[in-house]
Amino acid sequence: MLEEQERDEAPYNGPVDLPDSYEPEDDDQEPHGPSLTDDIMALLEDGRTYAEAEMAYQKSRAAFAANRFKGAIAFGLGAFGVLHLALIAMTVGLVIALVPLVGPWIATAIVTAALIGLGLLFLSLLKTRIDEIRDAFSDGSDE
Length: 143
Description:
Transmembrane segments: 71-99, 105-126
Low-confidence stretches: none
Radius of gyration: 44 Å
Largest sheet: none
Helix content: over 70%
Strand content: under 5%
Structural class: mainly alpha
Protein name: Phage holin family protein
Pfam family, one: Phage_holin_3_6
Organism: Qipengyuania gaetbuli
Shape: elongated
Oligomer: single chain
InterPro entries: Phage_holin_3_6 (IPR009937)
Mean pLDDT: 84
């Protein structure tokens, strides 16, 4: 029975899923893959693409930051203006509050002297900070 089955079967020639026109490659042929030069050129092209994308990203980021910075400056100037007006109102209110106690000229002199003293204090603190910055950037040869 086994002998009959062996006679009926065709000899095995290889995988059954290969097309009929399949011819195996010769071992002496060169492989059909990208060469080292092709890989280097692809790497350079990818690097150039990455650099262009990074430049576009950084430009858009800088444009966004500049736009936001302009808005921040506008809001900062607005806040400075409102605070300045509030300080003027406070100064006028101090003069008006002191008029019944000492008279208009002395009230004006007291408020003016207090503001000049406060301004001199702020100038002194500013000079100290500027001297500290100057000392931080000096090379130490002038000591």
